[in-house]
């Protein structure tokens, strides 16, 4: 079991492990393949990470982004840290969103930021965003895990 801010994360949600970070599938992804890179240490802000931890987070996002962009048939990535509550952070544990993007996924490209802020801009495919079941998250995580060589701890 891991901690993501106040939330308990089961091993089955974790598809990537590096020295300082974990890759998690998302409870409420805004688009297919929207995943999170979190620090192993439970600290709220990017500034709370050491240089090694911050570097590891970026390198982890790079590796994870390469995989999700391809596996979800996308052609770009939105890679975002909402660093503090006024920037839209809702879980006080530093994390990077890795979101595969493709042509026409939102009517206006930057609508994704409203969606991230929970304003429920409807994606062009009109899909509703509901919390996913553990089983659904496990299946996605099981699909992604084999793409990575993880550091076990
Ligand atoms: P932020 O608003 O930038 O703090 O992002 C929080 C992210 O965490 C959102 O994408 C949520 O869907 C996601 N989230 C919240 N609770 C969980 C959870 N238990 N497991 C996985 N992702 C979660």
UniProtKB/TrEMBL annotation:
The keyword Signal does not apply. Residues 1-108 form the HIT domain. Keywords: Hydrolase, Nucleotide-binding. A motif (Histidine triad motif) lies at residues 93-97. The record marks 113 as: Important for induction of apoptosis. The active site is at residue 95. Its EC number is 3.6.1.29. It catalyses: P(1),P(3)-bis(5'-adenosyl) triphosphate + H2O = AMP + ADP + 2 H(+). It comes from the Eukaryota. Its cofactor is Mn(2+). One of its GO terms (molecular function) is nucleotide binding. Substrate binds at residues 7, 26, 82, 88-91, 97. It is an enzyme of class 3 (hydrolase). Residues 127-143 have a biased composition (Basic and acidic residues). InterPro entries: Bis(5'-adenosyl)-TPase_reg, FHIT, Histidine_triad_CS, HIT-like, HIT-like_sf. Residues 127-153 are annotated as: Disordered. This is Bis(5'-adenosyl)-triphosphatase. The lineage of its organism: Eukaryota, Fungi, Fungi incertae sedis, Mucoromycota, Mucoromycotina.
């Amino acid at each position: 079991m891991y901690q993501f801010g106040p939330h308990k994360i089961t091993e089955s949600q974790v598809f990537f492990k590096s020295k300082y970070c974990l890759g998690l599938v998302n409870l409420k992804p805004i688009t297919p393949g929207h995943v999170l890179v979190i620090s192993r240490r439970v600290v709220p802000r990017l500034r709370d990470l050491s240089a090694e931890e911050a570097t590891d987070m970026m390198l982890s996002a790079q590796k994870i982004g390469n995989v999700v962009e391809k596996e979800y048939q996308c052609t770009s990535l939105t890679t975002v840290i909402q660093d503090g509550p006024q920037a839209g952070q809702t879980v006080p544990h530093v994390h990077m969103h890795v979101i595969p993007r493709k042509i026409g996924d939102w009517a206006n490209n930057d609508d994704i930021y409203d969606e991230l802020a929970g304003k429920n801009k409807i994606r062009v495919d009109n899909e509703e965003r509901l919390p996913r079941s553990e089983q659904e998250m496990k299946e996605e995580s099981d699909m992604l895990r084999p793409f990575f060589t993880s550091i076990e701890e």
